[in-house]
Amino acid sequence: MFPLGSVLFPYMPLQLRVFEERYLIMLASILESEPAEFGVVLIERGQEVGGGEHRFSTGTVAQVLELVAPEGFVGLVAQGDRRIEVVEWSQDTPFPQAVVRELPALVWDDALTPLRVLAEQTVRRTLSLASEFTDDAWSANVALSEDPVEAAWQLAGIAPVGPLDQVEMLRSTTMAGLLRSIFDCTEAAADAFRVPGPGDLDADDLDADDLNPDDPDA
């Protein structure tokens, strides 16, 4: 297991610089089998370096695609595969390990196409807004898989939302629930990137002096 400060979704890439000894030992262990894979969960609080952190129980299996080993660290490229739930954390020595169960794969229904289109439009529109404030957002024109299940998870992965919203998406039990969660979380996040116009002002936004009828400039 590799607890991280970010959420990994199925069908999304993961790039890591591994330098801590316990994770170098872990990589050496998993590379003995094929495919080489490990579990990723979000750290709820604490630090990923040195252990002692609290972890969310829902995560994703990462399959190793590429390794490079320049001096001082190992560069790793992996991809999210299937979702898992931690049943029990077993030990952290020599590296974090857990008993897990696989979560059921979400099933696509063509009747969900309008909802998927709405979710994608919302994500791409919000990415355009986010690009004006941060360099970390995905491009609004990023290509998605032609497979609808893969594309849905990729939408969750590129949506400019916080990690708690991402965990909510990852826990979805139906494809409809995932798409609705993508739309709802992204729509809420979009508010943070919008600059309100005059018509968007609320009475609570006005200073008390603005409401003074005796002030000729009010």
UniProtKB/TrEMBL annotation:
Ranges of Acidic residues composition bias in the record: 201-218
UniProt region (Disordered), positions on chain: 196-218
Q: What InterPro entries would the database entry show?
A: Lon_prtase_N, Lon_prtase_N_sf, PUA-like_sf
Q: Which residues form the Lon N-terminal domain?
A: 1-190
Pfam short name (any one): LON_substr_bdg
Top-level taxon:
Bacteria
Transmembrane region positions? none
Q: What is this protein called?
A: Peptidase S16
